[in-house]
Amino acid sequence: MSSPNASGENTRFIILISLVATIGGFLFGYDSGVINGTVDGITAAFNSDAAVTGFNVASMLLGCAIGAWFAGTLADRYGRRTMLLWAAVFFIVSAWGSGIATSSAEFVIYRVLGGFAVGAASVMSPAYISEVAPARYRGRLATVQQIAIISGLFASFLSNYVLARMATASTAVLWWDYEAWRWMFWAELVPAFLFLFLLFFIPESPRYLVARGLRERAQGVLSRLYGAIQGERKLGEIDASLATDHHRPRLSDLVSKATGRIRPIVWVGVGLATFQQLVGINVVFYYGAVLWQAVGFSESDALLINVISGALSIGACIVTVLLIDKVGRKPLLWLGSVGMAITLGLVTFAFATGGVDAAGKLQLSDSMGTLALIAANAYVVFFNMSWGPVMWVMLGEMFPNQIRGSGLAVAGLAQWVANFLITWTFPMLLAGIGLATAYGIYTAMAVVSVFFVLKFVHETKGRELEQMEG
């Protein structure tokens, strides 16, 4: 497993432990995407209306907000790896419980528990990777986290599609008198148990260990990562970055002692986290089947479109892996914002041309249906080569060592609250103002994000974590 290079850096080991951390991203994606194919099932099983269905779908996101908030702060007390272990346990409990639930209330409880896990994994996996990887390829390794998220989404879409086809519909009984939508949740148990097992074989973050005063353990980990000489130098750099303020990290560190105000870098992190959701990406991920059925596709075709979108997303993330440490973070964000604004505008236009049939479903002409389908998938590609991975990369690396856990807690909370609001309101927007107006709102947010990137986001490419300023 260990294979140091000439400089002593154990690149293979760094990559392997980073890949273990990214399983948290895979489960983040799976747990987020599995709901996509189960909406019809939970609606029928729990006899819920649009508002209750929206809450059933979005309930996990409340847990995500809480999980991100507490994971960031608890990780400064108990460690990054420890929080990932707890996340793995919650993934297992949630996957089983969501499938066995017999009421909306019971379902929501298990989904919120899953949200705790997703929220924790969303901030801890990129933070862990950033804290063990060298600056020259930190962006690429952290971007693999987004590939893992999209792979999890893709796996859930594919699993949903296969299980629904086997049962003839998501609401039909599949095995042992349980409906297919329940098996969609239980399929997550396999990667969840694998994640829990492998976490016992990775070390704790050396930067956390130094911040907690555990220098000997930190030196041992750093030597294993970078070799004895380079590890000793890195230990000195981490010490120096914390030397001006040796107290243990805490939430109040987000307030500048010089100005008495929240540090500007925190607001930038909140802006990045929020805009990632305000462009409406999770409407596609969570409600893709509902969305495409709303414009005339069958359930089977809608689930297949989700699979195609997931595959395109993985390809877009791979492009980012190749580019992020060469062209930087800011150019990718700007390109993504422009691309999303254009493609969302085209989707909005296509939806605006449609009429409504007797059943209340939007009807598009063949040409407008094709335009909506192509533009929506292009939008997914632009998102996943920019804001999808780059936002998480930047949150994991942009904060100084002293405030990384607290900064991630606040930004993660903002991200998941925005995610919840977008996800919860979509069924109501769909029923109330229609798809075109809803997508018009997401288009406007994409346009605003262009100017946010240009004015407030600063490049972090090639900078060591000890050089980050707040």
Automatic annotation (TrEMBL):
SUPFAM superfamilies xrefs: MFS general substrate transporter (SSF103473)
Entries under Gene3D superfamilies matching the protein: MFS general substrate transporter like domains
Pfam families named in the record: Sugar_tr
Topology versus the membrane: Multi-pass membrane protein
InterPro entries for the chain: MFS_dom, MFS_sugar_transport-like, MFS_Sugar_Transporter, MFS_trans_sf, Sugar/inositol_transpt, Sugar_transporter_CS, XylE-like
Keyword match Heme: no
Key words of the record: Cell membrane, Membrane, Transmembrane, Transmembrane helix, Transport
Localisation per UniProt entry: Cell membrane
Membrane-traversing stretches: 12-30, 50-71, 83-102, 108-129, 141-163, 183-202, 265-290, 302-324, 331-352, 372-395, 407-426, 432-454
Major localization class: membrane
Origin superkingdom: Bacteria
Limits of the Major facilitator superfamily (MFS) profile domain: 17-461
Family: Belongs to the major facilitator superfamily. Sugar transporter (TC 2.A.1.1) family.
Entry protein name: Sugar porter family MFS transporter
Source organism of this protein record: Luteimonas composti
